[in-house]
Each structure stands twice: as structure tokens, then as C-alpha cells.
Amino acid sequence: MHETPARAREGDPTIEDVAAAAGVSIRTVSRVLNKSPKVNAETRQRIEAAIAALRFRPSARARALAMRRSFLIGLIHNDRNALVLDSIQRGVVALTAPRGYEVIVHPTPLETEAAIRDVLGFVERSRVDGLVILPPVSGVPGLAEALAEAQVPVTALSSVPIAGFADVIVSEERAAGAQVARHLLDLGHRRLGIVNGPADTASAMERRAGFIEEATRAGASVAEAPGDYDFASGVAGAEQLLARAERPTGIFAANDIMAAGVLKVAAVRGIAVPGGLSVVGFDGSLLTRMLSPALTSVLRPFGDMAAAAAERLIARIEGGEAPPPFEVELRVVPAESTGPAPSV
Amino acid sequence: MHETPARAREGDPTIEDVAAAAGVSIRTVSRVLNKSPKVNAETRQRIEAAIAALRFRPSARARALAMRRSFLIGLIHNDRNALVLDSIQRGVVALTAPRGYEVIVHPTPLETEAAIRDVLGFVERSRVDGLVILPPVSGVPGLAEALAEAQVPVTALSSVPIAGFADVIVSEERAAGAQVARHLLDLGHRRLGIVNGPADTASAMERRAGFIEEATRAGASVAEAPGDYDFASGVAGAEQLLARAERPTGIFAANDIMAAGVLKVAAVRGIAVPGGLSVVGFDGSLLTRMLSPALTSVLRPFGDMAAAAAERLIARIEGGEAPPPFEVELRVVPAESTGPAPSV
DNA sequence: ATCATATATGGCATCGGTGTCAATGAAAAT
DNA sequence: ATTTTCATTGACACCGATGCCATATATGAT
Questions:
Q1: Tens digit of pLDDT per residue, chain A (344 long)?
Q2: Do B291 and A293 touch (CB under 8 A)?
Q3: Which of B102, B239, B255, B258 to mutate to probe the A interface, most A CBs <10 Å?
């Protein structure tokens, strides 16, 4: 009687079958699989033919055991990433799959302690070779240190360098914030508003700083409202800004979701967009196209950023040359939600 | 000289360390790990203590090799799933993680041949124990047969049973379509419109059939426009419907994204929603809350459906009892985009 | 001709678990 | 007292690959 029910599809050829078919030892087949140069060209051909004939695929598991690597990469994400998860995942897989890695996903909560325990547990369980971590989880205080101690290679996406993470794909959020201000200024806006992201979030503060700096330099005023990247806070922020006596004619929301909230308030109050109010979001998510009017937003190339992160991670895992720093180009993509300032 | 650079974090305790610490053989430790009943209670305690003390985690890879199972589950998705991917992924992981499985994601194209080759290649490479496949990929002709031949356990999400897949989580799309019609009829609408999904998609045709059936039975008229689940086709469909002399007062779009397109056209044409036009979507995606007005939509509990799919998949893999059929309850969630028919 | 050197290949241990079957000892049956 | 039975545990092979080291053959140097 079995202690556990062993069930397996039979018949997958093994390296041994290939060796037999090609009339060599398994060790030589292994060399071919690992592209070792020390194999005679003719032998290699014979082995490759056998591999093709048998439709042999090396067992990633056996290999993992022998090499003490899992060829698995963990992608740590949070529900805040929902709107961009697909493109990020696609970017990571596009880069990892051809190099023989698979991607394990791990949704995680955001609260500091829970997140750290959760991620560490995941790493221990799954024995991934490395992690790609998305913001905002990448910014969880203490996470970098905990992972460093666990000695897991990590590449993080973030807006700012994070102490403790050796490898971070950073985007120039401050410059982007300035670019948004410039966009609105160029359209003639002089009374601006901003719905901020969470105050403890570096990305939000960077965007804010760039925006306010540029606006102030140009002599425009900036009214601020707090927000936390949620739709509801976008609504609340917009209401607060639009209730002012001298209401802003251009509002920058620190992400697309809050911008959607701003558009909603405009609709409810009967303020035409962009006739009476211009709105800019941030992320360039799926959402931008689906809102009416289509949202002007700062495009962040998530797929490319994710691919770059994966590339650097693999370089780190394999000890190869790190590819050159990835230059993330953020730019305002004008759509229908911004237009000339109303001539009051 | 090494042929490949072996890099490994040292120090992870193995089953052997645990056995030594507890003063038993590794085989007995293994029994504890696998919850075999044939272990003395006291011995078990001692071993569990040792496991805890050493913070031992069994190597999934070694286990996989010995048991001829990978404890990996593949999630096949497509960019059409972008808006609901997060909740689905969350649902699958919530169920698989506690049972010792990890989830590998695999984005795939949609074209018949490419998708089949792509998925088969993925299965061979990754040696997953099973697959969860999302629509529309689950409906790719020939895929079910190909996977059956490869003998991979599969559970699919779909709107209708799919020949060839033993296990499909089906939702009652036809009834849901009828429910949408009922919702609009109850609000007094008599001239209805529908923007369909792709004609070769079972889900779309089911939704259509239910909607038209119910509307016709109540003596309401239904104007139709083609669509393909894209935003642009929602726009085109709405334009077509609203250009009619007797334009519909209630429009059902077969998914949320097209419904967003309908809202957009309404906005452009200056038609008040829901004052002059009611709009209903389908999916209950993230989008519904972020549009203005908030979209009335048919909520599909993707997270629960995905969890149910994962549960059945694991049952199939482990040969256990299949859980009872999952009853997907679809229901219209009224929001701001539907209201009483204009009294013209 | 002899020895060093490089190239190509194979043998065997090993990675960290589980499967199979045998061994042990205590309790129950004869 | 002897045999049977059951519960518990261990020994050893094995899963399918790679690491390390040895070996055989060809090539060049002395």
C-alpha cells in the first residue's frame, strides 16, 4: 500500500534515453544541453538529432536539484498593481522564458510586518532564484534588509532608489511631475491643483515636488489635496480643490485612478473637461483610454521596466555582466482631458 | 575549472539535519512531512520540534523529483484578461499556496495555432502538474484536444462547457443576459440595444440570446451592433445604435470595456446617462467604479471562480474527491449608469 | 622516440527528498 | 510458551540531472 498516491504521466524521455539513442554517455548529453564548448561538433549534432527525435526536454526539477538553483523567479505584487499587472507580467515573462526561467506570482499584502513575513515565507517555500518586486511593496520599510539577510537576489521597481536594494529600476518621477506642470502651463493654466499620493510614498512626493517646483517657478499657484492613490480619495481631493473660491483650472492627480475620481467630480458638478478643467493622471494605465474624456497621463512603460528588471535580476543570479542602467523615459501623453485654460 | 558556475545560498537545513536532530531516520521525518499516520505521536512531536528549531523547509524540487510531480500549477492568460487578472491570480494563489502548490503564469497569444503550440511548449518546459486556463484562450479550438492528448490535468474558466475539457467552471451567461434585460425592462425601457461580443465567442452569444429572449418576450425591441470586446468596438457599436431614428434608451454592452465605449459616445453626443440613456456592462471589473457615471454591470466573481477552478484542479491532480460543482452566481449590480427610461 | 598539453568523453558521487520492502518490538491470539 | 498481528521505524534504491575527476586520444614540443 502506498503512503502517498504517486501519479505521473509516463514516457517523458530522460537524458538517459537520449544518451542511448546517440550512443554516448549522459554526461556528454548534459554538456550539449548546457552548451559546453568541449564537445565535438559531430557528436553534438548526433546528440541534437537524438534530442529532437525523442522530443526530449530536460527536467527542470532534476536540474534544479543538481545545480542548487530552481530556475524560478518570483514576482511580488499587490492589488495596487492591478491595472498594470498584465503588462508587467508580460514584460517579465518575455525576458525570462527564453532564458529558461519560469515566473511564480505572489500577491502580497502591504502592511509592513505582514508583507515581510509573507515574502520571506514565500521565498523559503518556493526557493525562487530571485525576486522582482513591484511598488508599493518594494518600498515597505525593512523589506530590503530582510531580503538582503536572506540573501535572495532582488530587483525592484520603484520611483526612487531604496536603501538596501542593490538593484532598482528607477524612473525620474520628479522630472515627470515637472513635465506635467509644463504641459498645463503651456496650455495657459495658472491656477493649478494637485491630488497627492500617500505622504509616506516616495513616488508621490517626487511627483509633487517636481510639479510644484515647475509651477511655482512659472508663477502659477498650486492648491493641494491629500490622497492615497484610491479612487475615493481622488473624488474627495477633487471636491476639496473644486470647492475653493478660486478654483484651479488644471488638476494633476498623482495616479490614473485618482484622476478618474477627478473626472467623476467634474462630471457630477457639470464642469466640462477640458473646457472648464484640465486633468492629468499618472501611469498611462489601461484606464486612460477608457475614460471619457480620454485621460492625459504620464506614460510609464511598465512592460519595458519589468523586462529590464528581469534582465538585471538574471544577470545578478547568474553572475554575469549587469546590463547598462535602464533609462526609463517618462513622458506626458496628451489626450482629451487637457486643453487650453478657460479664458475667464 | 567549472563548466557552469554553481551558486547557491548555503545553510538551508535538509531533511537529514532534522533527522539527526530528532534522533530518527530521514524516512521517518519524511513521514511526518507527508502527514503519514504511521508515526508514533511522541516521535512526531520530537520531529516537529526539530523542524521548527531548525526552521526547516523541505525542498520542493527534491520532492518533485522523487514524486514525479512539480507542485506547480500553470495559469494561462491573455491580455484580454488584463482587467481581471489580478483578482483571478489572487483567487488561484489563495487556494493553491496552502496546499503546497505555486502558480506559474504564462501569457499567451490568442490565435489558434500559435496558442496551442505555445501552451504545449509551456507545459513541456515547465512540467506543471496542471493548468488553469482563462477565457478566451480556454475556447481556442483544438486546445482542449491537444491538452488531453498531452495528459495534463486542466480546469478551464468559460461561459459554456467546452468539448474536450473535463473540468470547466461555467457561469450562466444566458440567464445573466436575461437578468440585464429584466433590469432595464423594470426601469421602463422598451427600446433596447445591445453591443455584442465576437460572434464566434460562446459567452457573447449566450449573453445575447438571454438578453434578446427576455426583451422580446416582454415586447421590447432590440437593436444590435457587432463588437469584439474592445473599447473601440464599443464606441463604434454605440455610434451605430444611437444614430438610429428611434434610438434605444437602454444599451447592454457585452463587457465592461465596450460599455466604457458606450459611455464615451454618450458623453460626446451630450446624451445624459442615465437621464437619456441607460448603460449596462458585463464583468463587474475594476472599471465599473472608475467610470462616471459608475457602471451598472453583471458581477462575475472572478476570484471565487478562479479559486474554485484551482480547487477542482488540485482534486484532479491528487486524485481526490472532486468538490461539488461550483455554482457561479451572476447578478446585475446596479450603479449610476442605469435609471428610469426617459418619458418621451 | 618521449613527454607535455589540449581535446573529447566517461564514471561515479551527489543534490534532497520519496517508494519499497524488510526489520523490530510489543500486544494479542493460540 | 509460541505464533500471529499490528504499529513503528529504518535501509537502500531511485528520481534525472550536474560536479568533479579520471581517462583516452590526438597534437605539438623537445
A1: 333 233 334 568 999 999 999 999 999 999 999 988 888 989 999 999 999 999 999 999 999 999 999 999 999 999 999 999 999 999 999 999 999 999 999 999 988 889 999 999 999 999 999 999 999 999 999 999 999 999 999 999 988 888 888 888 988 899 999 999 999 999 999 999 999 999 988 889 999 999 999 999 999 999 999 999 999 999 999 999 999 989 999 999 999 999 999 999 999 999 999 999 999 999 999 999 999 999 999 999 999 999 999 999 999 998 877 788 888 889 999 999 999 999 86
A2: no
A3: B102
- Closest CA relative to residue A253, chosen from A220, A271, A273, A230: A230
Shortest CA–C1' contact from A42: which nucleotide? C8
Q: Does A317 touch chain B (CB under 8 A)?
A: yes
Q: How far is B217 from chain A, CA to nearest CA, in Å?
A: 34
Picking from A69, A86, A105, the nearest residue to B8 by CB comes out as A69
Candidates A262, A234, A108; CA nearest to B93 is: A108
Per-residue CB contacts under 7 A with strand D, chain A residues 20-39:
26-27, 29-30, 33-34
Q: Is B200 on the interface with A (CB under 8 A)?
A: no
Considering CB atoms only, which of A150, A152, A289 is closest to B231?
A289
Total Cβ atoms within 10 A of residue B336: 18
Global pTM? 0.92
Among residues A144, A177, A148, A176, the alpha carbon closest in space to that of A162 is found at A144
| Cβ(B126)–Cβ(B74) below 8 Å | yes
Question: In 3D, which of A250, A253, A170 has the Cα closest to residue A208?
Answer: A253
